[in-house]
Amino acid sequence: MRTGYFPGCSLHGTAREFDESLRAVAGAIGAPLAEIDDWNCCGASSAHVVGQRLAVALPARNLALAEAQGVEQVLAPCAACYNRLAKARRVIEEDEALRREMPELLGRPFGNRVAVRNILEFLTDALPVIEARLVHAFGGLPLACYYGCLLVRPASVTSAEDPEHPTAMEQIARACGAAPVTWHMGLECCGGSLSVSRTGSVIRLGRAILEDARKAGAEALLVACPMCHSNLDFRQRAMTRDGRPPIPVLYVTELVGLALGIEPRRLGLDRHFVSPAPLLARRGQAPAGGRH
Amino acid sequence: MSRSPVSDGGLRERILQETGVNTARCYQCGKCSAGCPMAAETRWRPHDVMRMVNTGAVGPLQDDPSIWLCLACETCASRCPNGCDPARVIDALRERFAREAPGGVPRPVAAFHRAFLDQVRRHGRSFELGMVMEYKLRTGALTEDALSAPGLLARGKLSLTPSRISGIGEVRRIFDACTGSAGTGAGGTGAGGDDR
To answer: Within 13 Å, how many C-alpha atoms sit on residue A258's CB side?
Structure first.
């Protein structure tokens, strides 16, 4: 089945390492990705505040492009893009009037035929290959799997089996030899859309997440959302009380890439604000150099 | 507290039609508000909003920033024992208030959404540097977070020029059709409490 790749704006910008690590991992497991040509922004956390039609139409154009480009499913690694694309698909499916209106609104044929997949589904499917090609298992690295909101909620949109207790990220982490901790904040919101306009709220929410991860003994956080990563990595210094050690925030694709023996730099690990280098050195993984 | 350019009559029915959420099913258990990450900072919480929609007395919501701080995290929706979706109801109210009483939208929140969507309308994709600059101009917060750009640049995370998609005409037509704002920029979307 051909998989189209919808990187979204973040993976071309502040979340470049998510894009780099995904491409490296996809290459290593033999699952090539074809980027959707001429994709547009999904509307993220702003379009739906303004109007439901805009929030559906912007992602729908990408689904129409994917259809025209002959793919049956689209991988949207960014949790926000995934949520918006999957929600648009579902809303259109349930609203016949909207479905009939789409081709005219988009100026394109549209059959709503393309499935939308998130990064956890993509990696879960690939687990047998990942396990077979593992060259550098993490020896029980304790880490906190942080889902946040958009990968799991609302359950009518996401494929989360249990939106209050998802386990996909833990299974991927275990396959890489890591040891996910039991903690309380894995499904809490990081503040996402208020990052710029109300930073104080994001600091409050992020601090609680980091504190709980530390208390549970985690040495790193595992994420699959550029907004969560940006809030918890880029703003971590403001969230951390004096004397607490920094806690690296890894994309799930970076963890898998390291376990597959891919060089840290190719995974973009040198782009983080909280350097994972000390952790990697401590854990016998090659240190990530540069840029800090 | 009773300022209400939005008429209250039949609000519950209109929300039901627009969103498919039957707010009458809410029995005020407060589970939504117990899980709401912003409850600590808001005067009106999700279960208050549901109650106000049911009684038609949403005036207080227009006089307060509470609903504009909803993160759309959907925790409320996933925990509601009656299948209600307070986040969706809040979105519908925001859409309505922005259209009918844009002055009530908190300035930074409005400026962010406006700046973000302006970039998307202009280029087809978000252009972070342009968005942040427009946001700063709109809010006057010129030095806030000013030190972040060098760090992002050094890590190759900030592009200095926007990339415009070739189907930009299609994206602009979508904006115009969905917001009724031909030629006025994404701002016509109504996210803006401020003017252009």
So the answer is: 30
The number of CA neighbours under 13 Å toward the Cβ of A166 is 26
Helix or strand or coil: residue A145?
strand
Residue window 161-190, chain A: list those with CB within 8 Å of chain B: 163-164, 187-189
Quickly count: other Cβ atoms within 10 Å of residue A200's Cβ.
11
C-beta of residue A103 within 8 angstroms of C-beta of residue A110: yes
Provide the whole-model pTM.
0.91
Average predicted confidence (pLDDT) for chain A:
93
pLDDT over 90 at B21, yes or no: yes
pLDDT digits (tens, 9 = 90+) for A115-153: 999 999 999 999 999 999 999 999 899 999 999 999 999
Is residue A279 exposed (0-12), middle (13-18) or buried (19+ Cβ within 10 Å)?
A: buried
Pair of tokens at residue A152: 């799991």
| A196 with B112: Cβ contact below 8 A | yes
- Residue B107: strand, helix, or coil: helix
Domain ranges in chain B?
Answer: 11-104, 107-189
Distance of residue B4 Cα from the nearest chain A Cα, in angstroms: 20
User: Which of B38, B91, B125 is the closest to A201 by Cβ?
Assistant: B38
Residues 52-111 of B with CB under 8 A from A: 69, 71-75, 77-79, 85, 91-92, 94-95, 98, 108-109, 111
| Residue of chain B nearest A190, judged by CA positions | B37
Q: Where are the alpha helices (DSSP H) in B127-192?
A: 128-139, 148-154, 168-179
Contact at CB, B78 and A153, closer than 8 angstroms: yes
Indicate the DSSP class of residue A290. S
Tokens 């992002």 correspond to B152
Q: What are phi and psi of B119, to 5 degrees?
A: -65, -40
pLDDT in tens, B140-188: 877 666 557 788 888 988 888 888 999 999 999 999 999 875 433 334 4
CATH superfamily of the B11-104 domain = Alpha-helical ferredoxin (1.10.1060.10)
Of B68, B33, B109, which is closest to residue A199 (Cα–Cα)?
A: B109
Domains of chain A (ranges; CATH) run 3-119 (1.20.1050.140), 135-282 (3.40.50.11810)
CA distance B114 to B78: 29
Query: Identity (one letter) of the amino acid at B85?
Result: D
